[in-house]
Amino acid sequence: MIDYQHEAEILKALANPTRLQIVDAIKDGEICVKSLEELTGVSQSCVSQHLTILRNLGIVQAMRDGNQVCYRLTHKLSERILRCIYEENSIETI
After folding, report:
1. Residue pLDDT, tens place only, 6-49
2. According to the model, what pLDDT value does residue 91 have?
């Protein structure tokens, strides 16, 4: 059975441009917070707040590597949504 409320929360979380950029960066493999900070151009605390939202929804999972925290994508729907966005952006208008 589909949990429509949970899936709607995931879609809401991915509607934020910074979180969408974070998920896009993570889709190809693990990435650490410092790299996400550089990629997004937002502060470490802002990246951490976005990651907390994504982690609470089960979209990403955190792993500690020494003093660094790295993340990986754990929600397959998020990856499919990104593919749909890519496909939509590659379609030329007639």
Report:
1. 889 988 998 999 999 999 899 888 999 999 999 999 999 999 99
2. 54
Locate the domains of the chain by residue range. Answer: 4-90
Quick check: 94 pLDDT over 60? no
Task: Give the chain's largest Cα–Cα span.
Answer: 52
Q: Which residues contact 33 (CB under 8 A, 6 or more apart)?
A: 44, 47, 48, 51, 68, 69, 70, 71
Q: Which two tokens stand for residue 24?
A: 């896009």
Give the pTM. 0.82
Q: Return the ∠ at Cα 87 (arms to 84 and 88), rounded to 5°.
A: 85
* Class of CATH domain 4-90: mainly alpha
Give me the amino acid identity at 84. Answer: C
